[in-house]
Amino acid sequence: MAVNLRNGISMPLIGFGTFRIKGREAILRCLEAALKSGYRLIDSAAIYHNEEDIGSALEELLPKFNLHRTDLFLTSKLSPRNQGYQPCIDSVKRSLGLLKTSYLDLYLIHWPGTGGKKVDNVVNIQMRQESWKALEDCYDKGLIKAIGVSNYCLKHLEEMKSYARTFPHVLQVEHHPHYVQPELVEYCAHHKIHYQAYSSLGTTVDGNCNPLLNEEVVKEIAKNHDKSPAQILLRWATQQGIGVLPKSLDPVHIEENIALDFLLDEKEINRLNTLGTRCKYAWDPSIVI
């Protein structure tokens, strides 16, 4: 499954997330399982502190699976502490070096705020504008094939209309049946921004709890399809054209999470859309000015 971005770039709808996966051995083991299972999108970020290990692992694994760099879609993201024009340029180049690649398929501004600045400080507006200018310049030079933002709210996207030469190709945000954002989804569809979800399984920030996986409706639908609750939640998203980035350290779950070749019916999707719970499990960007 893939989606064509506004600029014609093909992007897999299902990617492998690497948040909290650290250490060369863990990265190598997980990426080997991911590539074997068919994942071709690898999602990382500067603040994950695993780009170097990902680069080394891919250097070793691509020949093993008879793959080339062009077979992969690599994403990384700007750390909030590196907001600003030149710091952003430097961060892109650093990611390229660590990932051992001459280009990135997608690079995102990870957060609308700036590291070390209060959320209500107006400097946040200036800094993310400078960062976007830097990404546009990297995009023009071919260092990045597509550019986007993560954790931006409607107000942040609307603000970009005053300065962006290139509007984001991708928005990556928290999205799952406990935190459905129909207005944001509709906005992105209207502006041809691909909507990509993280925390699709409703995992809490500390990673110790998955309330959504224990929802009776989710478990009932999973039983009816002979699938795992995780597969149901991921298919709920992809069936609506929403990208997902499941992550796991378990090779069995890694393989399961991309095996989404089944369909939910309209009634099942509606039941998941209307669980009656609205709960955000990750960080709240709406507080950033």
UniProtKB/TrEMBL annotation:
<comment type="similarity">
    <text>Belongs to the aldo/keto reductase family.</text>
</comment>
<feature type="domain" description="NADP-dependent oxidoreductase">
    <location>
        <begin position="14"/>
        <end position="274"/>
    </location>
</feature>
<feature type="site" description="Lowers pKa of active site Tyr">
    <location>
        <position position="77"/>
    </location>
</feature>
<dbReference type="InterPro" id="IPR020471">
    <property type="entry name" value="AKR"/>
</dbReference>
<feature type="binding site">
    <location>
        <position position="110"/>
    </location>
    <ligand>
        <name>substrate</name>
    </ligand>
</feature>
<dbReference type="Pfam" id="PF00248">
    <property type="entry name" value="Aldo_ket_red"/>
</dbReference>
<dbReference type="GO" id="GO:0016616">
    <property type="term" value="F:oxidoreductase activity, acting on the CH-OH group of donors, NAD or NADP as acceptor"/>
</dbReference>
<keyword id="KW-0521">NADP</keyword>
<keyword id="KW-0560">Oxidoreductase</keyword>
<dbReference type="InterPro" id="IPR023210">
    <property type="entry name" value="NADP_OxRdtase_dom"/>
</dbReference>
<protein>
    <recommendedName>
        <fullName>NADP-dependent oxidoreductase domain-containing protein</fullName>
    </recommendedName>
</protein>
<dbReference type="InterPro" id="IPR018170">
    <property type="entry name" value="Aldo/ket_reductase_CS"/>
</dbReference>
<dbReference type="InterPro" id="IPR036812">
    <property type="entry name" value="NAD(P)_OxRdtase_dom_sf"/>
</dbReference>
<feature type="active site" description="Proton donor">
    <location>
        <position position="48"/>
    </location>
</feature>
